[in-house]
Design brief:
- It is a single chain.
- The protein is mainly β.
- It is built from one helix and five strands.
- Strands 4-3-2-1-5 form a five-stranded antiparallel sheet.
- β3 and β4 form a beta hairpin.
- The longest helix has 5 residues.
- The radius of gyration is 11 Å and the shape is globular.
Length: 66
């Protein structure tokens, strides 16, 4: 999983009825775009995440077109 600053990290809900959590990647801490990432959620909360199999990266070019 590789990402750049400005991409979105989407963590899919794990339980029926649980919503996806979307965060903006504000800093890539691993080499060459690899995790961990510093992310900022819509409510302003920041965290450092190493995404698991329930996560997806939306690259900047992809989510700007929608």
């Amino acid at each position: 999983m590789r990402a750049s600053e400005g991409d979105q990290l989407v963590q899919h809900g794990r339980v029926v009825g649980q919503h996806d959590h979307v965060a903006e990647i504000v800093q890539v801490l691993g080499p060459g775009g690899d995790p961990p990432y510093r992310v900022r959620f819509e409510d302003g909360h920041e965290a450092i995440m190493s995404p698991g199999p329930d996560c997806q990266i939306r690259h900047r070019e992809t989510h700007q077109q929608t």
